[in-house]
Amino acid sequence: MHGPGRIWGKRSTLAVGSVVAVTGLLLAGCGSKAGETEAVGTESCVDTSGPTIKVGSLNSLSGTMAISEVTVRDAIKLAVEEINANGGVLGKQIELIGEDGASEPTVFAEKAEKLISSDCVAAVFGGWTSSSRKAMLPVFEANNALLYYPVQYEGLESSPNIFYTGATTNQQIVPALDYLKERGVKSLYLVGSDYVFPQTANRIIKAYAEANGIEIKGEDYTPLGSTDFSTIVNKVRTADADAVFNTLNGDSNVAFFREYRNAGLTAEEMPVISVSIAEEEIGGIGVENIVGQLTAWNYYQTIDTPENKDFVAAYKKAYGENKPTSDPMEAAYVSVFLWKNTVEKAGSFDVDAVKEAADGVTFDAPEGLVTLDGDNHHITKTARIGEIRPDGLIYTVWESPGPIEPDPYLKSYPWAAGLSN
Asked: In what helix (H) or strand (E) does residue 52 lie, and over which residues does it extend?
């Protein structure tokens, strides 16, 4: 799904002004087409002459998003180690260069430029918030470099230089809404962090609600890192909606669910369905504050497949038996293997060759078989609704019959017409 007037540029050694372009892109809002940043046109600095090939990981190891992103970095490292132990990629060992995005979009853009232009990596794996992704997008397009983005997001985007291995909207948010509707939910309260993903997700939720007879009883946003939810939770309680749709990110979820429980609200009385809380966050929130609540993802540690059992065992062996696995880290792990498989299909580390070879590349992932769509650079994913249990794990209570084809612009949903304009 490539917009008109796209420029699929060549890689530059240094994309002049690409970081400056970040501010304009963030202010441009959601739903605009990517792929319109023109590259300068010089050759790539990636060195393929030796026994190693460099790749980058770019995750928030500090700041409000570190609660979620450190484990994503760990999963990337695990994938690299496993690939290296099995002979590497095209006979080369992977050298992983890590950077800290520090929970700041401008830092993500600066570190992306460094990894591409100074470290000369063949691909970068990382990002979490949509603000960080949108900050990095012009950097990767101007340099004709590759970013593998591992987190569910609001959709309404595709880029020739980004592969999206987390869910797009029709693979997470829409199935979550369908699930709630089928169980008789007729009203929702929307709570989210104040940035791109929650704002755009809630535009989509409100369009769905209008078409499906669901009343939106309230909508509140709070800055990333906020810890005072007394006013918002009081408004939620007063509104008396059938359910809450939660798009908070980072450690704000800790404060929100503690306040929710302190206010006497329960999963039985007014369930919360969350799209950014995974197993890793439950420990920080406190299982007693969130037990019985719902999540919408594509992967849980409790999935009963041989591939997932191997993944969970390997991760716990590397990082500790008490460390859970979760959807974003699994999607990051998967992204490294998808890059490997695409490079091997192309027979080259060249960016344009990798993009050309991407369509139809598969991987038997812990979440199930995933397949790359070479047109929109998303992957097929099985949607799952999970319930948080007293042991701190999430158990599937519903899943789609099979992998869902990605539809980032929601073109197959009449109620979504105009959302991408």
From this structure: strand 52-59
Instruction: Kindly calculate the radius of gyration of the chain based on its CA atoms and give it in whole angstroms.
Output: 20
**Lookup: tokens for 241:** 């909606």
pTM of the full predicted structure?
A: 0.89
H helical segments located in 194-278: 196-211, 230-239, 252-262
Handedness of CA 15, 166, 351, 421 (dihedral sign): negative
Residues 6+ apart with CB under 8 A from 31: 156, 157, 200, 419, 420, 421
Is the distance from CB of 419 to CB of 156 less than 8 angstroms?
yes
Would strands 147-149 and 162-164 be described as parallel, antiparallel, or unpaired?
Answer: parallel
pLDDT digits (tens, 9 = 90+) for 52-82: 999 999 999 999 999 889 999 999 999 999 9
Cβ atoms within 10 Å, residue 394:
28
Residue 263: phi, psi to the nearest 5?
Answer: -80, 0
Please count the other Cβ atoms lying within 10 Å of the Cβ belonging to residue 379. Answer: 31
